[in-house]
Amino acid sequence: MIARDPSDAGAGWRRELRVTRYAICCAVVCCLVARAPGIAQAQAPAAAARLEAGKRGFLAVATVLQSPRCVNCHPAGDRPMQGDQGKPHAQNISRRTVAAGVPCTTCHQLRNSESVGVAGGPPGAPGWGLPPADQPMVFQGKSPTALCEQLRDPAQTHGKNLAALLEHVTHDPLVLWGWDPGARRTLPPLDHAAFVAAFTAWVASAGACP
Q1: N or C: which end of the chain has fewer CB within 10 A?
Q2: pLDDT tens digits for 98-139?
Q3: Could you tell me if residue 198 is inside a domain?
Q4: Which of 83, 85, 79, 135 is nearest to 104 (CA)?
Q5: How far is CA 153 from CA 67, 146, 164, 174, in A?
Q6: Is 53 within the bounds of a domain?
């Protein structure tokens, strides 16, 4: 009788373990492959709904961005506008004025003039000014689609991605000024909470454009 080497039994056990692991892996892969179409089909309606909600959200966002409180400082040219009628800024103010050493904050202080007892004076908020000429962030005259495509491009938003833009419109004092403009200036067509909700839906859609 020939004695069996104990190492042979160990080798056999290890072979059986490898075969068992291989069989289990194959079973798991087959299960996932079989379920994949169903998972994709289940996710498709949710993704489509999120896309459509984002497009609707941006259409609402665009009504605010192109209201006087926003568009006046996002003009198509170098001159800001003023008033609800969008008239060119008095005193022939333009980006050249700023370049000559007279920033917008010379007159536009940290608060509306009424808050310091000056009726009918300039409005004010922290950071008052035009976007720089190299990235002017034009809102005036753009279709909602063109405006959307501009905002989703960090090269045109001073490096801000969608999440950073959402943070900006939610908390930036200059943005918030639009809902507290002072005097008899009109408010944007949405309240700030509704605007942020619409913007959030747009961001959740990865910036879907209408």
Answers
A1: N
A2: 999 999 999 999 999 999 899 989 999 999 999 999 999 999
A3: yes
A4: 79
A5: 22, 11, 12, 21
A6: yes
